[in-house]
Amino acid sequence: TGAPRCGASLHEPNKALRIELNANANCTWQIQRNANQTIRLVFSHFKFAPSSSCETETIRVFDGPSTASPLLGQVCDDTDAVPVLESSSDSLTFLITTNSVPFTRNFFVYYYFFSPGSKTENCGGELTGPNGTFSSPNYPAPYPQFKYCVWHIQAPKNSKINLEFRDFFLELDRNCQLDFTAVYDGASTASGLLGKVCGRAQPTFESSSNVLTVVLSTDDSNSYRGFSAQYSTAPLPGPVEPNTSLTCSSDSMRIVLSKSYLASLGFREAHLQLNDPSCRPVVTDSVIFSFPLASCGTIKKDEGHSITYTNTISLAAAGSAITRQRNAEITARCTMSNNETLELIYTTTNNAIQKLAAGGRYNVSMAFYESDLFSKPIQYSPYYVDLNQTLFAEVTLHSTDPNLQVFIDTCTASPQPGFGSLTYDLIRSGCSKDDTVVTYPAFENHRRFKFRAFRFLRSFPSVYLQCDIVICDSNSSNSRCARGCISRQKRAISPYTWKTNTVVGPIRLKRDLRAAEHSESLTEVEAEKTPNLQQYNFYTLAFVVLISNILIVVAVILKHHKHQVGYSYQNVQRS
User: Fold this and answer.
1) CATH code of the domain occupying 125-235
2) CA–CA separation, 79 vs 61, rounded Å?
3) What does R_g of the chain's alpha carbons equal in angstroms?
4) Where does the source fall among the domains of life (predicted)?
5) pTM of full prediction above 0.85
6) Sign of the C-alpha dihedral computed for residues 485, 488, 491 and 496 taken in this order
7) Domain 246-318+325-360 fold
8) Which helix (H) or strand (E) is 26 found in, with range?
């Protein structure tokens, strides 16, 4: 082993490189040989600076003689696999860059040329069924040099796999850099590493789903008898259906995926991305993508009677994608329409496995404002106005999609909140039906209009206003919003994209408010003029008691002086 400290041009048929780099390195290794063969490159050990990211510290592998060749894959500190990459020709280049953190980085990589499809490459295989056995090439004899064998195990649905190595003897080294067996929790080496093993052991592994991948990689040094393994299955605990959901609103799309479900598809949560590779998930107990509706590469399409938002979850470029069997992806689609259809679809190259439905609508509101500045909304209800007063109304779409247009199709007034048979049209089919209606030019996600308080208020105590709102793609020149006022006959052939209605009210006359206030004040005045019955009774009782006391005093005085006035006490009492 050994190589120049920073980069080299390599022409040997195979070589192992032990690389040690410090901060701010930018080193390129070029492998090329006129052999009409393919190169297999194995990064069996890598140690980057702690907490480094793919943006600042990485290994990039290019499928050709220079860094201008197509990117084949990359390896970072969070790569949860043993990266193995294969060129499409007899040249390959890899570049290692490090950040400014003072730290000694260590890498062990080896490569060899081989001929794809040759008999020497014939190892590994597909295993199906609830149980089975497999072993390394030539077992129990020593395994061959420069072998890369992949076994894909797929058990029945809703089960997990228990893998047991009954006999295991590979070359031993500290980091399992030379010969090793790696086990992945899913359908490929991009599914998340359960473990890497070498030396003498009897390891066991358990999958989180019904698929498992096993890899054997050997170099050109020492060979031993390899391994013999068997697997069995057991039912998965808990609910059978994966914990997967899609939620859409005017503002955002939210996708929740269970880890076991992703593992069954061959996905590893750390390597997932949306159409925009910079949009990555938050990983907790589940894998969650939550993003504004019109961001992260979401594709919007006007379907005539609906608007769809579509994004795709796929694997980010990683260094261990060569064993992936299926070109799998998860497509999330939000359809904003009257029947609120949403879909989450998992697809492969030849079939669709899952489709889930949820509910969601655009969020639209309407409010009155004090003036044509539209800065102070009316916060109280009922809204008291004068007859023929100008009212200012605004419809607002609450959405993060900047390319949506709001259009007022119809506005109707009614004295009944349920809008029965008694109605009055202000706007119909985008056309003003009341000569006081004035619409303002479209402003971002708002639509504004004004009108005078209508004759309904003369005959009814309250009036409500209901408007039908149409939402279109602003980039569509043939949408309902773009066509403006149309006749009833033409309206039937002009499909809307998305429609809802919103209601405000009640609206009442100020004179009714003044009449109510006057009635209350009269009631208060009358109340002041009316004597209090309890108070009257109290005064009457007090007067009676006072007269009684006076009579008693007079009687006492007469008794004391009866000999002077000639009256008897009895006569005084009778009087």
Assistant:
1) 2.60.120.290
2) 14
3) 43
4) Eukaryota
5) no
6) positive
7) Immunoglobulin-like (2.60.40)
8) strand 26-32
